[in-house]
Amino acid sequence: MTETSPPAENDRESVRLRRPEKRDAQSLWRLVCADETLDTNSCYLYLLQATEFADSCVVAELNDEIVGFATGFRPPTRPQSLFVWQVLVAPSARGMGLAKQMLLYLVEQGEAVQFIEATITPSNAPSRGLFASLASRLGAAIEYSRCFEPADFGASDHEAEELVRVGPI
């Protein structure tokens, strides 16, 4: 494992957040494939995220390289909510607060977003910390409720997932 030094302050200032585009899908997929924590999906999924769901997704660029992203969608049954599906920051850009910056960007860009939702396993302390920090920053409540049980995932030996809900914003 290669150690990376903390990002310089000027790096934080040069990060650009924007909506994803079709050409970004392969970069998003490669970031997920290189990460050991997120479920790996097909490149096709990231093509859909970057085109059909681009309004509820964001990429972070540093020196013209994608170093992070957050993907999500607006559930048809809860249009006031933004459901965050995946958040990832490349090792080279960690420690800059990018995950929270990307979620705040989505809140600011989304019309009438009153709640941010995601599912998180009980053991995923970094994601729990991210959403707690987001709730604090927004001055909003945070709630956890049961969502998916291990049996829902079949024989995949997947941990339960709880629904986290931040809001109202």
From TrEMBL:
Its EC number is 2.3.1.178. Pathway: Amine and polyamine biosynthesis; ectoine biosynthesis; L-ectoine from L-aspartate 4-semialdehyde: step 2/3. Pfam families: Acetyltransf_1. Residues 15-159 form the N-acetyltransferase domain. One of its GO terms (molecular function) is diaminobutyrate acetyltransferase activity. Keywords: Acyltransferase, Transferase. NCBIfam families: ectoine_EctA (TIGR02406). This is L-2,4-diaminobutyric acid acetyltransferase.
